């Protein structure tokens, strides 16, 4: 492999790795920092309704970042395959996992997140009642349960996506090692 191919392949993989890092880092930040800090702080304050509104808005904006990261990952994968002409099993596996991650991101951002945000007008008062230790009516309990199902699906699929992205890192490392050994 000549030095130009190595340089451009490295750049393609570098952009792919950067996109994965931003995506995984953002999801980890929301799951490990933002939500665990914001919800208890909001419940303890005079504005318990603020946390779900803010987190929903932040995730809505982060969704666009995941789309950009997905596009960079897909372009990096395609460019790397074109430049190195390495289209063996690991290259195809990287493309498949990248496509699954993008599809999950689109489903999360275009289907589940809008549904949960649409439910917020009805759900936010329930957070206030819950923070004040007031009992919920059966209709409110059913509404809260429906919201919780959507929220759990978002969390589960988001976690699966993070694990897939970490697996994608492994595929890129494995591909790099195979190409390096063949020189």
Key attributes of the depicted protein:
183 residues; mainly alpha; 0% strand
Structure notes:
The chain has one domain (3-181). Helices cover 90% and strands 0% of the residues. It has helices at residues 3-44, 50-84, 89-131, 138-181. α1 runs antiparallel to α2, α1 packs antiparallel against α4 and α3 (89-131) packs antiparallel against α4 (138-181). It is elongated. The mean pLDDT is 88.
What's the arrangement of secondary structure elements?
Elements: H1 3-44, H2 50-84, H3 89-131, H4 138-181
In short:
This protein is mostly helical. It is built from 4 helices and no strands.
Which sequence of SSEs, written as H and E, runs from N to C?
A: HHHH
Mean pLDDT comes to 88
Structural class: mainly alpha
Low-confidence stretches: none
- Write down the Rg: 21 Å
Strand content: under 5%
The biggest beta sheet reads: none
Count of all domains: 1
Q: State the helix count.
A: 4
